Amino acid sequence: MKLSLNWITLRVRDLEKSLHFYHSILGLPIERRFESRGKQIVMLGAAGQPKIELIQGNDPTLKPECGVSVGFEVESLEEAIAHLTSQGIPLARGPIMPNPQMRFFYVLDPDGFEVQLAEHSQAGAFQGNNA
User: Fold this and answer.
1) What is the mean pLDDT of residues 110-122?
2) What are the strands, taking DSSP E only, across the chain?
């Protein structure tokens, strides 16, 4: 059996706040927006890549402290940090460098879910270790 990731669903309290975070701040394109069974739904993500599905709800089924996070790759950790802090999004944890090829940090989305932004280096060219 061959699998590929299709989407990750986040049940959010305020769809517009979450849409602003994932689309306007993080830059995920809106693939489509629709209603199903009385719930507003937005699919975000680039063509050919797994999607983030935001579903408007009163209470998230999954609590932020359950240990689930959503991760994205960035070209430059420094640029990502500068962009997010300029948008008023503080770092929740990090930057962390668990090995010479990877650095990452976390921010929180409007519902408190951790969003990881990671940069990988093929040559292990990062300076220092912040782990």
Assistant:
1) 90
2) 7-12, 30-36, 39-44, 51-56, 69-73, 93-99, 102-108, 114-120
Reading across the β-sheet that carries 69-73, which strands appear in turn? 69-73, 114-120, 102-108, 93-99
Residue 25 DSSP SS3? helix
pLDDT in tens, 29-70: 999 999 998 899 999 998 888 899 999 986 655 566 677 789
End-to-end CA gap in the chain: 37
Report CA 78 to chain centroid distance, whole Å.
17
Q: Tell me, what's the pLDDT at 5?
A: 86
CB contact at 8 A, 124 and 101: yes
- H/E segment holding residue 111: none
Amino acid letter, 77: L
